[in-house]
Write a structure and sequence with these properties.
Strand content: 15-25%
Radius of gyration: 34 Å
Strand order of the largest sheet: 3-4-9-6-8-7
Number of strands: 13
Number of helices: 13
């Protein structure tokens, strides 16, 4: 009953100065709102970065071919420049590396793709059957490359979303024929769901539009397009020849990933001293991304908490003014028997009414505005359950801390001097 009476008295006192109380509450509202929005933005950015890395697989090890800067501009013997991973590297890795549950190799090269009079420039990607699981490809219809396709070098193809839309706009392409390059014909057996353009950027690969890819069996690609794929270069540069663009290994358990990566590096070091391969370990990227984003979120949270600090200073300023205005009232209450802790209690209740009201309004505003940030600014936001609780709790604690000094100042006034105050 005393608590209810104190709250009622506190609300009544604050209602006597509505505008001043409203302005004080706004400082807390903005502080709490900014804390929630900042944490939501930081968490959203962290989630997106982590998801992109997870698409590569935390238990995967990715080795890519890269053109070294030390290669001669004339190529080997005045011919094509050879570099990167080879079939021998693939066999060596499979034989020497333990704890590997799947190995997939990838070759890719740009070709014209056509269906009757429709034509599009895309990328032919030779893959092994395990590529679907490793890369997270989802099929819209049909099937993916199978082990039997790989063993028989079957001329089958799985189309990307944009290729399907361009070459077969009026119906399903399953069972139909698509032409790749000059005289290569393949039967369509599957269609891939649309994929993000940036899905391969996290591993250091080129930012290709994955929807323009056509997947064929790796062995079919080698048989029909040759052991090495030649890339013609403009500006008078020599052509480049490459056997394998990328090898991805899936390790049985994430605890073996780093050790397995060291073994793979040892296997490649002897035959690739010119730096024509690069290794990416998504697990390392994931750990670094999470660590970086934690720091980023803490910095954003700290910046937002400064707003709460400013709001707390405003509360202290208003409560000190209130104490001065109510000096005679304080003296009268002390003369009638009120103790010091009763005065402290009363002023803290008034401070908590201000901060809790502002904190509640700030939480509601923060939750609403976080959704608008995603809608209008295109910035991903994610609200964790603890962020509104933390923001509201911090506002209450700030109110207690900054309201304690004015409350003690009121309580320790000399009652006689207070009664004489005009």
């Amino acid at each position: 009953m005393r608590l209810i009476a104190a709250i009622r008295l506190g609300v009544k006192s604050l209602r006597l100065h509505k505008l001043r109380s409203l302005l004080t509450i706004l400082g807390v509202v903005f502080g709490v709102c900014s804390v929630i929005i900042m944490l939501a933005i930081g968490e959203g950015i962290r989630f997106e970065a982590v998801q992109k890395i997870k698409e590569l697989g935390a238990s995967n090890i990715i080795v890519r071919s890269v053109k070294p800067t030390t290669l001669s501009a004339e190529g080997e013997g005045g011919g094509a420049v050879r570099y990167g991973l080879t079939a021998a590297d693939l066999r060596r890795i499979v034989d020497a590396v333990p704890n590997v549950t799947a190995v997939t190799a990838v070759r890719d090269h740009r070709r014209w793709m056509s269906n009757h009079d429709r034509r599009i420039d895309g990328r032919v990607v030779g893959v092994t059957p395990t590529y679907q699981d490793v890369s997270g490809i989802r099929l819209r219809e049909g099937r993916f490359i199978t082990v039997l396709d790989q063993q028989r070098s079957t001329p089958v193809a799985v189309l990307g979303a944009s290729v399907t839309q361009s070459l077969f706009p009026l119906g399903s392409p399953i069972g139909k024929i698509v032409r790749l390059g000059e005289e290569q014909y393949y039967q369509v057996v599957g269609v891939v769901e649309p994929r993000a353009v940036s899905a391969e950027q996290a591993d250091g690969g080129p930012a290709n539009d994955l929807n323009l890819d056509v997947y064929i069996p790796f062995e079919t690609d080698r048989v029909r397009f040759g052991e090495t794929v030649a890339f013609d270069r403009a500006m008078g540069l020599p052509p480049e020849k490459l056997e394998i663009r990328q090898i991805t290994l899936t390790v049985a358990d994430t605890k073996y990933v780093k050790r397995t990566a060291e073994v793979v590096a040892d296997c490649l070091r002897a035959n690739h001293k010119n730096g024509d391969t690069i290794m990416t370990v998504p697990l390392d990227l994931l750990e670094k991304a999470e660590q970086t984003q934690r720091i980023f979120t803490l910095v954003l949270g700290a910046i937002a908490c400064i707003s709460l600090l400013v709001g707390g200073i405003g509360i202290m300023n208003i409560m000190l003014a209130t104490v001065t205005e109510r000096t005679k009232e304080i003296g009268l209450r002390r003369a009638l028997g009120a103790r010091r802790h009763d005065i402290i209690y009363q002023f803290l209740i008034e401070t908590l009414v201000l901060t809790s009201t502002g904190g509640l309004l700030g939480v509601i505003s923060g939750l609403a505005l976080s959704q608008q940030v995603t809608r209008w600014a295109g910035i991903a936001t994610m609200i964790q359950y603890w962020s509104p609780i933390m923001a509201f709790g911090t506002s209450v604690v700030v109110g207690l801390i900054f309201g304690l000094y004015p409350a003690r100042r009121a309580a320790y006034m000399d009652p006689i001097e207070a009664l004489r105050h005009e």
